């Protein structure tokens, strides 16, 4: 059986759906603060609880024979994290440690952690980011995700193996239209969809004087369905007796925010009114994944391009 923390959230629910459709038995642990119980489509078991509650977690492990934990539960708004630093440390850092300890005590074999490219911070140049490169997070969110990685490595010993996935900008939705990203999130595509639908008057782009081809920041977008496939490949990998890993999950393709905006206009056939604002202090100019290790380790590579991410995401948004 597989335990997915945060399995009712955006990425977690897609992972649960894929696992269930692959014949895996899944139990979901979620406090439903940001998740939606209706996202569970295959009668997966749902236990409502918080990852900071060690007694509740210990009960879950005693009641179920868990082979693998997929730890997705977290607070994920990078800009909010600096304002709510204590809460982000409590949930993302302390909560993760509690999950790992409970899993270790229960004899769990494998632990997969949903980390973030935020652990890298601001790259020195415009080169793709390597997993072995420096980690210098510039916000509390990135600090807590990096802390979650470190405590995972400390917790895993003996036969317990771990996989760390550093997500870049996850986008898109399940093609069947049942799952989606929260429209109220601060994700750039959700904001652009809101303008395309007329819910917002304009999109504000912070900073258009960066050293990029059109002056806006560069990001790496990866489809959520490609993310879920990486987790199924990781399970197969571990069941073959392979070793622990840390891997980037991105498309490996750079897109400026202005390019993303124009692609949304192309897909939606809507004009996106734009207003430029000053840079956000500390905003990362260039973020691009080097995904060669994911290809080498798991034989994983993304199948979706930016247009497909926008098509799937906008279809569900509507």
How would you describe the overall organization of this protein?
The protein has 2 domains: 2-172 and 223-250 and 289-298, NAD(P)-binding Rossmann-like Domain (Rossmann fold), CATH 3.40.50; 188-218 and 253-288 and 305-317, UDP-galactose 4-epimerase, domain 1 (Alpha-Beta Complex), CATH 3.90.25.10. The chain is built from 10 helices and 12 strands. The protein has helices at 10-21, 54-63, 78-83, 85-105, 140-155, 188-196, 224-239, 257-268, 292-298, 306-317, and strands at residues 2-5, 26-30, 45-48, 68-71, 110-116, 161-167, 169-171, 203-206, 218-223, 245-249, 254-256, 274-277. The strands form 3 sheets. It has a 7-stranded parallel beta sheet, with helices on both faces. Strands 7-9-11 form a 3-stranded mixed beta sheet. A two-stranded parallel sheet has the order 8-12. Helix 1 (10-21) crosses helix 7 (224-239), helix 2 packs parallel to helix 4 and helix 4 runs parallel beside helix 5 (140-155).
């Amino acid at each position: 059986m597989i335990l997915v923390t945060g399995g009712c959230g955006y990425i977690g629910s897609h992972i649960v759906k894929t696992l269930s459709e692959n014949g895996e038995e899944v139990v979901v642990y979620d406090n439903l603060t940001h998740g939606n119980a209706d996202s569970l489509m295959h009668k997966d078991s749902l236990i409502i609880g918080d990852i900071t509650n060690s007694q509740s977690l210990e009960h879950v492990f005693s009641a179920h024979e868990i082979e693998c934990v997929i730890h997705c539960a977290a607070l994920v708004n990078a800009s909010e994290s600096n304002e709510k630093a204590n809460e982000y440390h409590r949930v993302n850092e302390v909560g993760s440690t509690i999950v790992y300890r409970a899993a270790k005590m229960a004899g769990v074999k494998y632990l997969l952690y949903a980390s973030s490219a935020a652990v890298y911070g601001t790259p020195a140049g415009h080169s793709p980011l390597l997993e072995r490169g420096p980690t210098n997070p510039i916000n509390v969110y990135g600090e807590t995700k990096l802390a979650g990685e470190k405590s995972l490595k400390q917790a895993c010993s003996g036969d317990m193996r771990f996989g760390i996935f550093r997500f870049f900008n996850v986008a898109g939705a399940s093609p069947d239209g049942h799952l989606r990203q929260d429209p109220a999130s601060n994700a750039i595509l959700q904001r652009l969809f809101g303008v395309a639908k007329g819910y917002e008057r304009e999109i504000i782009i912070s900073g258009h004087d960066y050293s990029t081809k059109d002056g806006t920041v560069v990001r790496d977008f990866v489809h959520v369905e490609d993310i879920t496939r990486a987790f199924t490949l990781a399970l197969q990998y571990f069941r073959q007796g392979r070793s622990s890993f840390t891997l980037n999950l991105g498309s490996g393709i750079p897109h400026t925010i202005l390019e993303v905006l124009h692609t949304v206009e192309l897909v939606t056939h809507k004009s996106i009114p734009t207003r430029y604002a000053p840079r956000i202090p500390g905003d990362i100019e260039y973020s691009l994944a080097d995904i060669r290790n994911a290809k080498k380790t798991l034989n994983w590579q993304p199948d979706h391009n930016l247009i497909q991410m926008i098509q799937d995401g906008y279809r569900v948004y509507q």
